[in-house]
Amino acid sequence: VQLQASGGGLVQPGGSLRLSCAASGFTLDNNAVGWFRQAPGKEREVVSCININPNRPYYADSVKGRFTASRDTANNTAHLQMTSLKPEDTAVYYCAKDCNYALRGKGTQVTVSS
Q: Nearest 5°: CA angle at 72, between 68 and 76?
C-alpha cells in the first residue's frame, strides 16, 4: 500500500493549486481518503476526509469554501483543489488511506507567499 502526494509548490496569496494523491496497492474508491497538513510549530490539521460516501466530505473550518476534495476512480487518484490560498495554508500536505494519518504517504510542500 502506497500513497504519493504531488502538486505542491510556491503560490501567491489568492492563488490556486491542485494536489494529487496517487494510490497503489489498494483501490481508493473502496476506502476513505484524507488530507492532512503539518506546518512548523503548528499542530497537525485534518484538512479533508472523503468517506466511502463522497456526498458529504468533511472539511476543516479553516478551508471550507476554498478547498474541494475529490476522487478520480479511473486513475485511482485523489485530488485536493485549493483556491483563494492564504499564507496560513503553508504546510506539508499529506494524503492518507482511511483518513488515518498513520497510513499517509510522502507529503508535498505548499508555500503561499508573495
A: 125
Query: What dihedral angle (degrees, nearest 10) is formed by the CA atoms of 13, 15, 22, 42?
Result: 20
pLDDT tens for each residue of 45-56: 999 998 876 678
Residue from 60, 80, 82, 77 nearest 69 by CA:
80
Q: What DSSP designation does 29 have?
A: G
Q: Would you give the end-to-end CA distance of the chain in angstroms?
A: 37
In this predicted structure, what is the pLDDT of residue 80?
97
Q: How much of the chain is helix, strand and coil, in % rounded to 5?
A: 10, 50, 40
What's the rounded Cα separation, in Å, for the pair 96 and 103? Answer: 5
Q: Taking a C-beta distance cutoff of 8 angstroms, is the pair 60, 47 a contact?
A: yes
Please state, in angstroms and rounded to a whole number, the distance separating the CA atoms of residues 91 and 87. Answer: 9
